[in-house]
Amino acid sequence: MKKIHPEKYNDTEFIRLSRLPFTQMLQLKNWLPEYSIFTIQGENGTIQNCVHYDDYEFWFDNYKSENQEPEFSLF
Questions:
Q1: pLDDT at 19
Q2: Mean pLDDT per segment of 10 residues, for the chain of length 75 residues?
Q3: What residues have CB less than 8 Å from 75, skipping those under 6 apart?
Q4: d(CA 42, CA 48)
Q5: pLDDT at 64
Q6: Collapsing DSSP states into helix, strand and coil, what is residue 23?
Q7: Strand partners, 42
Q8: CA torsion, points 13, 11, 36, 17, in degrees to nearest 10?
Q9: What is the per-residue pLDDT for 71?
Q10: d(Cα 54, Cα 51) in Å, to the nearest integer?
């Protein structure tokens, strides 16, 4: 499983949960407190289901399951 690169809006680095492989998205979403998922209101519209990249990176490096089923991506 590879770590995804962050997106940036203003000075905020974030990832979109929808850009993660399905299994990884479920594991991260279950690990995060609900208030850690946020929406960015940008000039070109709304970006939903965002997570700060620092939170994602910490989870990826310390908590993601090594013994998991193969990744499935929605995109």
A1: 95
A2: 90 95 93 95 92 96 66 53
A3: 18, 19
A4: 11
A5: 76
A6: helix
A7: 45
A8: -30
A9: 53
A10: 8
Could you tell me if 71 and 24 are in contact, meaning their C-beta atoms sit under 8 angstroms apart? Answer: yes
Q: Report the candidate in 65, 28, 70 with the shortest Cα–Cα distance to residue 49.
A: 28
Whole-number pLDDT of residue 43: 85
Q: Which residue has the tokens 């090594």?
A: 66
Q: What is the DSSP-derived secondary structure letter of residue 44?
A: T
Query: Where are the chain's structural domains?
Result: 7-44+51-62
| CA dist list (Å): 69 to 52, 72, 75 | 25, 9, 18
10/32 Cα distance (integer angstroms)? 23
Stated pTM of the model = 0.80
